[in-house]
Each structure stands twice: as structure tokens, then as C-alpha cells.
Amino acid sequence: MAGAFGFKGCQKIHGPQIRNLLQAKDFFLFDCDGVIWHGEKAITGATTVVNSLIRRGKNVVFVTNNSTRPRENYMHKFYRLGFTDVMLEQIFSSSYCSALYLRDVVKVCGQVFVIGCDGLRTELQEAGIPCVEEEEDQPDATIFTCPLAADVKAVLVGHDDKLTFLKLAKASCYLKDPECLFLATDNDPWHPLSSGRILPGSGSLIAALEVASGRKATVIGKPSRFMFECISSQFRGVDPAQCLMVGDRLETDMLFGSNCGLDTMLTLTGVSQMEEAQEYRNSDVSTNHSLVPDYVVDTIADFIPAFEELEEQSN
Ligand SMILES: [Mg+2]
After folding, report:
1. Active-site positions, per UniProt (predicted)?
2. How far, in Å, is the centroid of ligand 1 from the Cα of 270?
């Protein structure tokens, strides 16, 4: 997409261009990790930017593929890190959207087998979706001897730091039933840790199950459009042309924006760097162009001078 001001993608923007963008857009979608915070630390200036947008009457929502926390828990985190104007209704996590998908789209009748953290189960339970009880498997339990639930209608896979071979084996057995849905909160391959190490993401677990089952998972989180559909159904009249998607990962955030017809902004405080964006832009494979951001900033703190200018103009 060319962007609202005719840029050809990957444009590093500054002062007046950011101010024009702030004036032109009324709906801002932010990814969280790598954009507004790193783990438990807010990115410098991010609280000022988010709180200022909200106070200026802009619509702001957060779209995160992190399925490990329920939204209530996210609320506490936003508050703890200084994003004090954020409300529960502004948070769209892949766990919350997975619950909406199961309840409202496929209207699942039966139990869901969950590979994931407690936060994912909590979201499903709050939406009234029964999950197969997670019993502590005996250390010597195997797929030969463990019980399997009779009415599993969906397998949902998210980030699971307590994944066992037995869980994978059970999921593979449930997926032998072609009527059993195969869903994934997200397909992120890995996540950076502050130590320089990485964490395998849900995508790596899904790959194991896709091979075992010979099936393809339906992905709920970014870059799938479903999260935007959730936002559109809760904020009536959202016009994609009025939206800006701000993220740090080309393969999820920028592609999500492109898939939904939104202008996109890459911030360089997270996973993806300018060189990777330029490689996608210069690629001969046309589908790679959907991963190219319209705009690039070093950090979302680059918005702050634009707010100050707008403030001065209105005085
Ligand atoms: Mg991110």
C-alpha cells in the first residue's frame, strides 16, 4: 500500500509528517511487546504517546498475539506500567479473540482441548466454553494408558511453557477426528528475550501438530484478519482508511495491517529492522510486498514532538 501521503513504503518519517499522520488518522492499533513495552518495562515515551492519543479523543486499541494472560491481567499490566487511561475494551489478545471465535463464529458444542497457559483457559472459561480438565498427568502416564475425553470438538494451541510430549500426543489423537477443529492463537515462530536468548513461539508447537495430523491450523491472531473483525464488531463504523497499525514485526503486524487494508507503521524498538523491510520491498516475490510498512519510526516516542506542536497550535 502506498500510504496516505503517497510514500512508496518503508519511509522513515519525522516531525511534520508524523503530525500530519496524527491528524489524518482517528484509529490507532498498537502491538504491545516491542512497541509500547519490553516485558515489564514500558518503552520510554510510550505512556505519554498512548495516553495523549486517548486524551485527544483518538480510538486506541491493542492487538497482541500473546495468549498467556487474560485481559484482566493485561489491564493490571497497563496500569502498572503507566498506561493509566487504557480500558479493558481496548485490549484484543489472541486468547480473547480465540474465545470469541469459538463462541460466536463456530459456536462450538463440546469441549476444547487446550495447549496453552492458564490465561488462555481463563479467557475460554469466561466466554462459557468448556475445556478438557487439565489433570496433572502421572509421571509414568503414556498415550497408551491415559484417558481421552469423548466430546472434544476443537484443539486450540497457544504458547505453552509446560508443553509435554503427552499433550502433543493427546492433541494428535483428537485431531484424527476430521470434525474436530484445529485452531491456533497465533503462529509466531519465536520471541526475543532481553538476555539475547529466544523462546520458541506457538508457531513451533503448531508445526509439530501439523506434521503429526497432516492438517493445517486456522490461525486466529495476527496476521489473520479475524482480530480486526473483532475490533470492527465492537467499535462500530471503523473505517480501515482511518486506521494506523503500529507494530515491530513485519511478518505479523505489517502483514496484518496489509491484510486488513490499514496503513502500517514499523517501529524499530522490537524484532524487525529497516534492512529486513527493505529486503521485502526489493523482493521479486510480490506477496512479500505486503510485509513492507508504509512508515517507519525509530520509536513511538517520535510522536511526542508532534503532540507538542499540535498543542502549541491550539493555544
Ligand atoms: Mg511485538
Report:
1. 31, 33
2. 6
- Reply yes or no on whether 33 is catalytic: yes
Q: From CA 18, how far away is CA 36, in angstroms rounded?
A: 17
The answer to whether 284 is a known catalytic residue is no
Does residue 239 have a known ligand-binding role? Answer: no
Query: Does 275 fall in a domain?
Result: yes
Q: Are residues 277 and 308 in the same domain?
A: yes
Sole residue written with cell 502433543: 168
On whether both 132 and 212 belong to a single domain, the answer is yes
Domain that holds residue 142: 96-219
Q: What stretches of the chain adopt beta strand conformation (E)?
A: 11-12, 27-30, 37-38, 41-42, 59-64, 91-93, 111-115, 152-157, 181-184, 190-192, 198-200, 218-219, 243-247, 263-267, 295-297
Find out whether 294 and 247 touch, Cβ atoms under 8 Å. no
Residue 216 assigned to a binding site: no
CA 167 from centre of chain: 24
Distance CA 274, CA 279 (A): 9
Same domain, 210 and 233: no
How close is the Cα of 21 to the center of ligand 1, in Å? 22
Q: Is 140 annotated as a binding residue?
A: no
What is the tens place of the pLDDT at every residue in 275-287? 999 999 999 998 9
Verify that 103 and 209 share a domain, yes or no. yes
Q: Which among 199, 257, 234, 295 has a CA at the least distance from the CA of 90?
A: 234
Q: What are phi and psi of 263, to 5 degrees?
A: -70, 150
pLDDT tens-place string over residues 248-266: 999 999 999 999 999 999 9
Q: What is the pTM of this model?
A: 0.93
Residue 311: half-sphere exposure toward Cβ, Cα within 13 Å: 10
